[in-house]
Specification:
Aminopeptidase, eight-stranded mixed beta sheet, disordered C terminus
């Protein structure tokens, strides 16, 4: 857990808060370490929502024990996006202390009411800034175009030449991101960002 020490101070260098735009409401979004007691139920609800579940877990095996399955993600590193003490997004990743080993993004989920407002991008940027490994991988279903566009924008490339067929669903893509000489350190401190969007 030493990776989670010094996070906010370095992230301020990597991620300046967004600027204010005319006609947009400003919402303060905190990025902080996830806590299983506080965040587990909310994360399960976000995953099981009608828009998120088909993109993340299209098969029914996840429904057997979703809390148990999601709780295993808390064994790794978890960052959550929170607005007014409400968890609205989560990213989990594992990373090694050795930068020549591969890190992986295990799960990225955003409350469906907050889709397309930059929360997923913010969580991904914070995770990538926290990971000191040079190579990071993740998997995404080929039909999940919104996630694939986000990952491409952040520098991930497809390493599977069209995907790997593991079940009856569309193929899984394995995407890869390289950051040479990555050495950021993480702390448990909160990072606050302003997200600007029109309220629906």
């Amino acid at each position: 857990m030493k990776l989670i020490n010094l996070f906010a101070s370095l992230l301020a260098c990597f991620l300046p808060p967004p600027t204010n735009h005319a006609g947009k409401q400003t919402q303060k979004i905190n990025i902080e370490q996830g806590k299983i007691k506080r965040d587990l139920n909310t994360c399960v609800e976000m995953i099981l929502s009608p828009k998120n579940k088909p993109m993340l877990f299209p098969n029914d095996w996840f429904l057997n024990d979703p809390k148990e399955h999601v709780s295993t993600y808390f064994l790794d590193y978890v960052l959550v996006a929170r607005e007014k003490n409400q968890t609205i997004g989560m990213i989990t990743f594992d990373a090694s202390q050795k930068k020549d080993q591969t890190a992986s993004i295990n799960l990225l989920v955003v409350d469906e009411q907050y889709h397309r407002r930059g929360i997923g991008t913010l969580l991904m940027q914070n995770a990538l800034a926290a990971i000191k490994n040079e190579r990071t991988i993740l998997t995404v279903y080929k039909y999940n175009h919104a996630a694939r566009n986000l990952y491409k924008k952040l520098g991930f490339t497809d390493e599977t030449n069209g995907g790997i067929q593991i079940d009856d669903n569309d193929p899984l893509l394995i995407l890869e991101h390289w950051q040479e000489g990555a050495t950021p350190v993480i702390t448990r401190k909160k990072v606050q960002h302003e997200i600007h969007f029109d309220r629906l």
